[in-house]
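Quick one: structure tokens for this chain, please?
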Amino acid sequence: MEFWVLLLVIVLVVAVLFSMVRVVKQGFVYTIERLGKFTLAAQPGLHFLVPFVDRVGHKVNMMEQVLDIPGQEIITADNAMVGVDAVVFFQVLDPGKAAYEVSNLYQAIMALTTTNLRTVMGSMDLDETLSKRDEINARLLVVVDQATSPWGIKITRVEIKDIRPPIDISEAMARQMKAERLKRAEILEAEGDRASSILRAEGDKQSAILTAEGEREAAFRDAEARERAAEAEAKATQVVSDAISQSGNEAINYFIAQEYTKAIAGFATSPNAKTILFPVEATQLIGTLGGIGELAKGMVEDNGGGSGGGGAAPKRSSVPRTASRTAPRNS
């Protein structure tokens, strides 16, 4: 009998010791109630409680948590029914308030987010709800955070996961998008054709300008070449005239004989002339050259006397010139 009593006492002592010791895990805070009243927020670690007086009230998760908001059917300002899904990120800052200021924290946050989601999106048109998600998220964050601040929590983010417009509206939006893309494609094609036509016209214009400038430059160069050739010819003629006026028959006979010889050489090198016949003899050629020289010298003397120059060149007797012309014919 005494053994069983001793065993019972040992069991009671062990149970009391176990009830006195509490280990709080990292990321959690335990609320300690003494005789039913909240007295302490036990941080992570080892804690000792007074047996039969203190007890753990709530185990509050202090980590950031995610609350999934179920799908909601919302009527927008333009009477379009859309389905919306959202998520809420929050963190408990005051475990006492989170445990005792609200009965069911998660249910309260969900209900508060749902009602404010309907309010915010119900005041916007369908196009705004589809294109202004960031604005919706920001407005929900401000409203829900202010409403839940007395509960000792902080709403970090509110995100719209999905917006589902009705099927007929989705089809109409798809047709509208297709028409818009076709219009943009036709506009881009027309702009491309216009730009191509403009560039082609600019190219033709530049080509015509360059062609005209080239023709003008060619004409200028041709005129300059003709002018240079005329100047050279005039200078050559002046040199020949000076040589004739200074040397007499010898110079003109030399020039005429040189040109005559070049002409004969040209006949000899012609590809079509196989046989060349000269109807005059060599003595007649010499006489012809002498006669041409006399005629040219007489013209030079006449020009010199008519121009009032520094005096006429000394005249030679015409008898020896005639004899030099006719002597070869009598030989």
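The chain is about 60% helix and 20% strand.
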